[in-house]
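Bump. Still looking for Type I restriction modification DNA specificity domain-containing protein structure tokens.
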Amino acid sequence: MPRADWNSVSELSFKIPTIKKQGKIVGYLKALENKIVKEKEKLMALEEQKKGFMQGMFV
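Sorry for the wait, here they are.
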């Protein structure tokens, strides 16, 4: 795995968002994560429903 030379990296400057902006980013990511969890729950429910339908077809 290649490694960066510390002397080169230490001279770089990075823009860091303000605390307010960081808070907005965190809020957005949390909302996105909650959405993903809800969609996974919906998917699991649909998969269970599918299983039931498939079992009903082959009885």
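The chain has a mean pLDDT of 93.

Edit: fixed formatting.
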